[in-house]
Amino acid sequence: MARYTGPKAKISRRYNEPILGESKALTKKNYPPGMHGRGKKKKQSEYAVQLAEKQKAKYIYGVLERQFANVFDKAARKEGITGENLLKFLESRLDNAIYRLGVAPSRRAARQLVLHKHITVNGKVVNIPSYSLVPGDVIAVREKSKSLEAITDSLASRGGKRFSWFEWDLNSLTGKFVTYPQRDEIPENIQEHLIVELYSK
Description:
By secondary structure, the protein is an alpha+beta fold.
């Protein structure tokens, strides 16, 4: 699956969740997209349920198939619960960190900020959205980018919402990745055990 760039509402309706951002379509059309969306819902096979959960996770984090498989392999090799490790590594992506810090209103927007070299890690410009942060890494908005309207608007709209695994200094627009989050701290509605079961087949 290539990175999805189509209508966000369509994906939200497919999973009946605002996984790519809030969508009015969910309240207006609370059934799946397509000509058969209103029809009787067929019972999905175990494989279909597991595959759908993996696809949902990929949509949420904006990760390609090969990237996702590599992250899963890394999670499986690390000590601990594989499903939780998977989400921790996805959360440590640079584009996700920019979104969590409130510098961008969505992961898509965060990806663009990284690609256009508006972000530094430990004082050096990094333009790779999938860059994996490790505890102690310092993320900052470049000095010449601090007045960007997209960034100031996002920070203003985010308010005081912060995540415990980051430190954030609003004055300097600098954050620190303190630690990998615990599973109960990650707000995404993902049943990671289904993904583990899928890869275990």
